């Protein structure tokens, strides 16, 4: 059975001459060079085009099936706020994020932007924020802006859409109403308790008729974007309701009849009279006189009417194969049977002596029939809801019509019908066909076949409402399973930390999303700029960078897509952002004038490309600055001293070493540079229409800012600028950072007001880096940690203690003075895990991540089953030069004593203790977690109040990014690092930094006097629904076992660092 779960449909537009040979494409294809008959009826392709014979469509977008979609999106997400929490006069802001937490399985890059929240204004006091992000991802985007509508949004077989079912149900409804009234009057006049009881039964039948009428009418509605398969399942639900009434009525009738028989035959007359009187106290008694014989005529008339309704309703039900009509027909038959019982009771009372037992005996027989009919229809309805395949009779009819249609098509004899399947949805049949065509056929050839098949099947097979055709190459070497489109059901998330998509996010004061849009850098700009994973690479020098012009185009594109989605941009009241840290943009002396003169007619690229002294922005993966890093580390005497001053030792990606290298390499460019922005302040500048200052948190990722004195460090500026004489010019280029992370830097540029409809009152707040944005995604408490699992891996904590060390980073909190962000950043995160995943032996077609997870979970901690004999396994798996520790690319494996970490030994190919590759799956995850525990152990302490019996460890660990979805990784992180209250997945997927940026915007505009970020967001943030516990965290025994080898792990790193330093 194929795995269950949400299903999706894709429509790929390909060149009309595209051939099937060798590609085994099994998606529905549309030619790109056809002409639509109507380009104005719909802006997007209808999701019901398989419901009618197709028309051609417009557009010319080529598609290369051999080149998979690449990462880098810019997506916009919109959140909503409470109606009373933000006054209309206040100013709010939201972040534009970069992708530090982006899951891209094969991507090693992180794009330059993160999310930009935007705060919106409208007539009611409901502010909104928009958050934008640019990062890497591996997904396909929709054809935004192109018309793909081939067909009217109607069902295939309009000739089947008669109202027979509705009409017969209405007749039954009015008949029941009329008969109920007649039985009440007749029962009273003719002194028949049975007839009065039957009148009450007829009244309950009205509920069944109303339910049937509602579901039959609703199920005939045409499909919509929200319900692409139509509303046929509503009829199945209605059938369950009617069948439930039958079952309940049958059971009640049977119990009542048994009670009456028990009283009649087993109790004395007085007790029987009391029991029967109590059981039928609702009857209208006229004394001891029996019913009049004239009541029999009325009973016989109701039997005839109900029998006619049964046959008429069942005829329509069989024609239309409607379960709910069949249930209602059975209900009519039950009423007919009860009418017969009533008739015999009346006749028996008039012609037989003591015939009261006839009523319960007849009722008991009828109850069995009612339960049987109700159960049968219940099972049938449940099968329909479970999407059981269509019956063989319908399949045979479809096959006949397909074969007939192929006779009418040129070269139809070359087409093979491989499979007919489908599901029943109420009265509708949703049919799937698999046709095998020659590999040399083009999409146009297949479209002719598809149209002919859909027309004839829809017109001749009653009830068929949709025909979907899948084409496969006739001469394919391997048999293609019809279930190959299903994703394996086993858990197999990507383990990368960069988010699957990048967002521009809009929120309201209650933190709810309103709208979103996205851009995929490679898919949208890859061919234009020659990108790979969203960046350009100069391997010879270790340079990794991206075109700034592409970023400008991406801003326009994502806002256009947001506008197309009717996001209320006119109500946006503020914008902020969180962008890729450390990256830089170099402005020339024309920048201020060009930023202030942007007009709606031209795009941002046309306006601002001339404002740059350097056309590229260095990317965080750049590793071209080792020489400069060595000089920075030595400038203040040691790495430790540099970390004490700036919060970090020198790193390749940090902005200070990057500026120093570019100054030497491109002196003319540097001389022509008027201002240098970080990516966060660059994006803020574009939106502001003026150069924005650096952010107080982001500036601490440059190796130039003295955190303790809160100023530029003179010695480091001299080093970067080439001597004391260049310091003044460098300070002028950098400007002074903005100390306040909130507030407004000014109104949004008129360009965005005129082109996208932003409010002129929309304010721009300070933007920050992606990692600081991530810690703002929830109100962190002391001792909480965030682990971002993606292409890189990041460990974040908030602390009031400034304890710098060359092994990690300390940065200013983006919103709270006196608080610091502790950060570990590893290049070899998701990419390294993927390399191990791909190296594991697996059966053909087996899901790789499921195989990886199995290997992780089946291996005990450190692969130690017996401490007395087994040695603990440790390793470093660096497929890229690592940041922490600063070691070259390579793989190292070691073993040590499992109890205390002693006797550390390297394992080589010839070693006796060499382990199989399957063990690497757990060892790599453990090694990444051990490194985080080793470097954060001085920041955690024993919680004597809440958890006095537990060792020092984080209170909670929050996972974000693609790897947060992987239960095996979550389990190992809990084993190694602990988590006194557990390990949680922050339910924002890979968009934590976008969400944090949005929250920053909200705080910036709505904060009260002295109100901190955590105080404001903490009041509004609801834990339920925002986080999910994925592991218990601390496990006694396992946590201590890892603690025993922590020293050996550090010793291993130090030894490797001596021989493989970058």
Structural commentary:
- With 1062 residues, the protein is an alpha/beta fold.
- Among the domains are: 11-64 and 149-155 and 390-473, Cation efflux protein, cytoplasmic domain (Alpha-Beta Plaits, 2-Layer Sandwich); 158-384, Alpha-lytic protease prodomain-like; 831-924, no CATH class.
- The protein is built from 30 helices and 32 strands.
- The strands form nine sheets. Strands 3, 4, 5, 6, 7, 11, 14 and 21 form an eight-stranded mixed β-sheet that branches. Strands 25-26-24-23-30-31-32 form a seven-stranded mixed β-sheet.
- Helix 3 (232-266) runs parallel beside helix 6 and helix 24 packs across helix 25 (920-936).
- The relative contact order is 0.13.
- Mean pLDDT is 77; it is low at 1-11, 18-125, 133-162, 275-290 and 487-501.
- Residues 786-1004 form the Carbohydrate kinase FGGY C-terminal domain.
- Belongs to the cation diffusion facilitator (CDF) transporter (TC 2.A.4) family. SLC30A subfamily.
- One of its GO terms (biological process) is xylulose metabolic process.
- It is an enzyme of class 2 (transferase).
